[in-house]
Design a protein that fits this description.
64% of the residues lie in helices and 10% in strands. The protein is built from 20 helices and ten strands. The chain binds adenosine-5'-diphosphate (ADP).
């Protein structure tokens, strides 16, 4: 519902000027030389037909008159070489301009990547925003042809305008009716074209959601890391089935587009034929009655043709600009996507920190379901807190709020007594080093995965890996810390085990050297005892940092200062292990009794 509202509003809006105003200043700043070459190309393109128009009548009149070989050869040479040289220059220019195309595309793709990475986190879980990213990417790269694709149309308009003006003068002086005939029939053509373009833009917008699903499946199917699940759960047929469904939908959309645009494409042939017949008749009468010479007769035919082509290319280019900017505007919309997360400018003070949740409640956007209710909790520097509770109790959401990936819907979170919304966002982020449940290692080297900033020395990275017990394993890798993880980019890339991946992710968190570290069940794949070992080891490594351990198990509770038991979005119990384990009828006491075999 919302999505189509968005589409309607952009359909009504004229996107040409906002799009051009957005892109051209950036492109001009990025590569000025491109625009000088484009201007030169316009001039060459504009003057080319005039060689023929201006010299051909002399050649024909010479043929029908004096027949001087020297003059005939001169005229012929001017036509042949003149046009040849101009078209050679044009080819070279177009070739050079094409080369800029890649640069522009790379540049704008990079900007899109930057924007996607800096969008409010909540948008990364929002279908509408994900669709918008897809529309922006496709709109800019493919459908609009990017800066070069749009500029080509601007160039076409500019050279068409010059040609039309030049030809109009020549035609008005000799056979003015040719102009009228051509103008009327061209207008008819333009109407047909514009209808066709409208249909294409409409269908593109609808198609983007299928393309996103299509892209997802092609990626998931070919990602060999999914190999196990696909085989063991016999997901191949389901995946292929869905894939085919998406292809089918895409094919249907294309068919629908063809079916709807076909009448307009076919209809465009008629005005062209009508124009030719009318011009031949009119000019034939003028020539037979001696009002114009045969040379001028041919000049008028060529001029009429040029005029028709120029007007058509002007209109096509104008419509093409409307269409292409409509596509490219999706990119502008993404780049101007509102940032709802308030970012303050307060500096985080150095030294010890206190984090406080004050009456915090939260519902995920567009759900209306409260998943956290009136949370009140204080964490002092160096304190180790264990957050436990069943799956779905709200533990991860609690951490997401603490890390400001979302803002509370009610209440406030304070760092050192100041609402976290008032802090400089990046500075606030530097306070936390979380390892989320769904942490991601990238298909980069081990080194780049640990030191995402790329600023540390090899020794520091190796030391971090040694601290988490990965030192020996990395030594066995062919290129040590420079070995690539996974096989996306290197067939010799290393495929770390689940446990090894967790260790690397933990090394990354420790490496960030933030005052607060968070382990959000990154060990969920491990058995309770292995999890307990990792948490205990980690607890030794964190030293004086504040540490938060999240688990649906109690592996970290014994060595933590406090335990918060989450249930149905609120903190049901809070205290030390000793105080909670003896609480009669308590949730924690019950959980501990059930899991005691692991931890006693
Ligand atoms: P836990 O970490 O304790 O397992 P979560 O914090 O992940 O629990 O989830 C709490 C509730 O919030 C669950 O009902 C879950 O379905 C819901 N939830 C989690 N993430 C989202 C999201 N991005 N959008 C909507 N609901 C969500």
């Amino acid at each position: 519902m919302k999505r189509s509202e968005g589409n309607n509003s952009s359909k009504k809006k004229n996107c040409v000027m906002p799009t051009l105003k957005y892109f051209f200043p950036i492109a001009w700043k990025f590569r000025k030389s491109y625009f000088f070459l484009a201007a030169f190309n316009v001039i060459i393109d504009a003057v080319t037909p005039f060689v023929n128009i201006l010299v051909l009548p002399y050649l024909i009149n010479e043929l029908l008159g004096d027949k001087s070989l020297a003059r005939l050869l001169t005229y012929a040479a001017i036509i042949v070489f003149g046009q040849g040289i101009l078209s050679l220059i044009k080819d070279i220019l177009l070739n050079v301009l094409e080369k800029y195309d890649e640069r522009f595309k790379d540049y704008f793709t990079e900007e899109l990547g930057k924007k996607s990475m800096s969008l409010d986190f909540q948008l990364t879980e929002d279908k509408e925003a994900l669709d918008q990213i897809e529309r922006a990417r496709q709109g800019m790269e493919w459908y609009s042809g990017g800066i070069h694709g749009i500029t080509q149309q601007v160039m076409a308009i500019a050279s068409a305008v010059i040609q039309i003006a030049g030809v109009a003068v020549i035609v008005i002086l000799n056979a003015p009716l040719v102009l009228l005939i051509t103008a009327v029939l061209t207008a008819i053509n333009a109407v047909l074209n514009s209808k066709r373009n409208k249909i294409e833009v409409e269908i593109f917008k609808d198609d983007s959601k299928w393309n996103r699903a299509f892209g997802y499946f092609s990626w998931e199917m070919s990602d060999f890391r999914n190999g196990k699940d696909i085989r063991l759960y016999n997901a191949k047929d389901m995946m292929l089935g869905k894939w085919e469904e998406y292809i089918q939908r895409s094919v249907e959309t294309k068919k629908e587009e063809q079916r709807r645009t076909m009448p307009y494409s076919l209809g465009a042939v008629i005005p062209t034929a009508a124009k030719d017949i009318a011009c031949y008749l009119y000019l034939g009468v003028l020539a037979i009655t001696g009002k114009i010479t045969i040379g001028v007769f041919s000049q008028m035919l060529t001029s009429g043709g040029t005029f028709y082509t120029a007007v058509n290319s002007l209109l096509t280019a104008a419509q093409e600009i409307v269409k292409r900017t409509n596509y490219a505007y999706e990119y502008v919309k993404l780049m101007e996507y509102p940032v709802s997360l308030k970012k303050g400018d307060k500096h985080v003070k150095a030294g010890k920190h206190t984090i406080e949740f004050r009456h915090v409640s939260f519902a995920y956007p567009k759900t209306g379901v409260q998943v956290l209710r009136d949370i009140n909790l204080t964490l002092n520097q160096g304190e180790h807190l264990s957050v436990v509770g069943l799956n779905g109790a709200g533990k991860t959401t609690f951490v997401k709020l603490m890390c400001r990936l979302y803002d509370p819907t009610e209440g406030e979170i304070l760092l050192d007594g100041v609402n976290i919304k008032d802090y400089d966002y990046e500075e606030y982020m530097s306070v936390f080093a979380p390892v989320f449940q769904d942490f991601r290692l990238f298909s980069f080297s081990v080194r780049d995965n640990v030191d995402l900033n790329g600023t540390a020395s090899d020794g520091e990275v190796i030391a971090a890996l040694e601290r988490v017990g990965m030192g020996d394993r990395v030594k066995t890798m062919d290129e040590g810390i420079n070995t690539l993880l996974f096989r996306d980019f290197d067939k010799d890339g290393v495929e770390p085990s689940g446990g090894e991946q967790q260790k690397i992710a933990i090394a990354r968190a420790l490496f960030k050297d933030s005052p607060t570290v968070i382990l959000d069940e990154p060990t969920a794949a491990l058995d309770p005892i292995a999890e307990y070992d990792i948490y205990r080891q980690f607890d030794k490594l964190v030293g004086g940092k504040t540490a938060i351990y999240i688990s649906h198990r109690l592996s970290s509770c014994r060595f933590c200062d406090h335990i918060a038991v989450f249930s149905e979005g609120s903190v049901k119990e809070y205290g030390t292990h000793e105080s909670l384990v003896n609480m009669e009828g308590g949730l924690y006491a019950a959980m501990f009794a059930a899991q005691a075999e692991y931890y006693n």
